[in-house]
Design a protein that fits this description.
The structure is a homodimer of 238-residue chains. Chain A is 35% helix and 22% strand. Chain A contains ten helices and eleven strands. A five-stranded parallel β-sheet of chain A has the order 7-2-8-1-9. In chain A, strand 4 and strand 5 form a beta hairpin. At the A-B interface, helix 7 of A face helix 7 of B. Chains A, B: Its EC number is 3.1.3.71.
């Protein structure tokens, strides 16, 4: 039986270095980086290059890429794209190439490069990811992007949601996976309510983006499977 | 209002270094280091020196201390004391001095030295710890010892149990604390059942120590408050 494990924050990724090379990593930064990426692919974006710094993002922009930069949950000036998923529902982005840097999500992606495959997950493409993973023979590690090294509730809930979808085919051997799965089952009937007191929700609510939160918690909106190929995320057929 | 936070494993302690100096740290290694310590104090032990290595433990032993050493959940040869709490229920230990090294718990204690105070928590002395903390003006950080750097279920549940006791006087600002508290409330009516699939329970059950697990999950058996003074844990009046 395949195994599914959860790394609650990139600051604990060192604990998985022996298994990373034999696992598919699913990176989740539900609020909002990976939800933005999934939305972008669902609207026809060609590729997304996750980069670590704002400077790198500018360099890609100079080569004709659309730029998207976020720090501390706010958009950085001088880039075309917002860090709200709604800004990716744009016909002009069909076929576009994007460079993106965010506080947590893009870093989690670039730090997982040694894995068999790096995929991007969100509630929006939960079943698409689950279906793809079922077709593969590898173990799975869900990497929660967290917030500046700290575990967070929303990405942990995503990990639990993915486990719930895969629990017939995968075993969960480690407590982080058990915790994520239990947490999701406790909150799944009303995720917005369950998340109401979380630190990031409070952070985002101060920014007045309640609409983004509600949107990002919807399950299975899009049938897209973004994977890292070289330095770019591309969408593959599930 | 005072704040209570949770660090799910010593491998995330770097995230708390700015607040550690203004916080009381409660270290929990429920299975079984801190439960052993609390049991020892409840049975009249004078002090317990937590040490990092087996070699150090031997050196203290040569100075007349009782030695207790555990690695990978098993007792190390050549020391008087077992790593089962039942081995501390011994009249001969009244007034004794003990040196102890364990896989996770003692390391978590020694790494917290910069805190205002380092205390030892377990379900066995939950209310004693809660009562002491209420009398103090400092914020609290619960440090879960985890397993070799990984978060575990039982120590997270302890953190949640302590938050449940303190929730009127303390706010929980961070998601780790919210997760621990939610997890405890989900499992509190039947902790042995809730923990049945956890990785450490499976590890311990292979060792045939079901009795220890049941014992360590009992709440409020002892009114003892162990704190670190210099290099030794001593029991203070709550």
């Amino acid at each position: 039986m395949k195994n599914i494990d959860v790394c609650l924050t990139p600051d604990l990724l060192h604990l998985h270095k022996d298994t990373l090379e034999n696992s598919i990593v699913v990176v989740a930064d539900v609020f909002r980086a990976t939800s933005c990426m999934v939305t972008a692919f669902a609207h026809g974006v060609d590729c997304i290059v996750p980069v670590a710094t704002i400077e790198e993002c500018r360099q890609w922009q100079e080569r004709g890429y659309y730029g998207a930069a976020e720090r501390n949950a706010k958009m950085v000036e001088g880039f075309e794209l917002n860090n709200s998923p709604f800004s990716y529902m744009d016909e002009r982005l069909r076929g576009a190439k994007i460079a993106m840097t965010t506080t947590n999500g893009t870093l989690a992606i670039t730090r997982s490069r040694n894995a068999v495959k790096v995929m991007v997950g969100s509630f929006l493409n939960l079943e698409a990811i689950a279906r793809y993973l079922r077709s593969q023979s590898y173990d799975v590690l869900v990497l929660c992007a967290g917030w500046k090294g700290r575990p967070n509730l929303e990405d942990t809930l995503f990990a639990g949601a993915l486990i719930e979808r895969l629990k017939e085919e995968y075993s969960m051997m480690e407590d982080s996976a058990i915790m994520a799965w239990r947490m999701y089952n406790q909150g799944k009937n009303n995720l917005p309510h369950f998340l109401a007191n979380s630190s990031h929700i409070r952070r985002l609510q101060r920014l007045g983006i309640h609409k983004d939160i509600t949107y990002c918690l919807q399950h299975d909106l899009f049938d897209v499977v973004p994977v890292l190929r070289g330095n770019a995320l591309v969408c593959i057929e599930a």
